[in-house]
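Summary of Year 1 activities. Much of the first year was spent building the evaluation harness for sequence design. The harness presents a backbone, in tokenized form, and records the residue chosen at every position. We chose the following record to illustrate the format because it has been used consistently in internal testing since the harness was completed.
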């Protein structure tokens, strides 16, 4: 079977990002993220992502922060985490590798075109734009593991 990559008109990925914040220390150790394909004006995309943010993190993929992120305390240096107050400073360094991985999660084959008499696989592989549309919602994690989005 031949495979042809199709380029849909306005299919672009957008994402919800949920940094998980330890309620006691304010440290972020992992990020939850989920990508969507939405063809709509920015205001509709924004309202859709915000509407999904309170609960959709339950279905999101989890990403650990790499050891290059460090937090220094009086007890030593913790690797693979950063304080919530530092998130904005490193946001793009954190999010870019995550959205690259999210792009790889979409099905490489969405259908089979039989119009020519031979099966031709149809691949619509969505990508994030040059300036990815992302909504970030911090999720607080309690000592007992309960997650609560900060809306």
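For this record, the design step produced the sequence shown next.
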């Amino acid at each position: 079977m031949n495979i042809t990559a199709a380029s849909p008109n306005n299919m672009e990925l957008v994402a919800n990002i949920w940094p998980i914040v330890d309620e006691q220390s304010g440290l972020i150790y992992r990020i939850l993220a989920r990508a969507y394909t939405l063809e709509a004006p920015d205001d509709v995309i924004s309202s859709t992502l915000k509407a999904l943010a309170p609960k959709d993190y339950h279905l999101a993929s989890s990403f650990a922060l790499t050891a290059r992120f460090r937090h220094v305390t009086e007890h030593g240096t913790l690797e693979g985490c950063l304080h919530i107050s530092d998130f904005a400073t490193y946001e793009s360094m954190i999010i870019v590798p995550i959205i690259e991985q999210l792009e790889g999660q979409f099905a490489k084959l969405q259908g089979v075109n039989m119009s020519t008499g031979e099966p031709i696989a149809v691949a619509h592989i969505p990508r994030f734009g040059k300036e990815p549309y992302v909504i970030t919602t911090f999720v607080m994690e309690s000592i007992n593991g309960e997650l609560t989005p900060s809306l």
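Confidence is low (pLDDT under 50) at residues 1-9. Quantitative recovery figures across the full test set are reported in Table 2.
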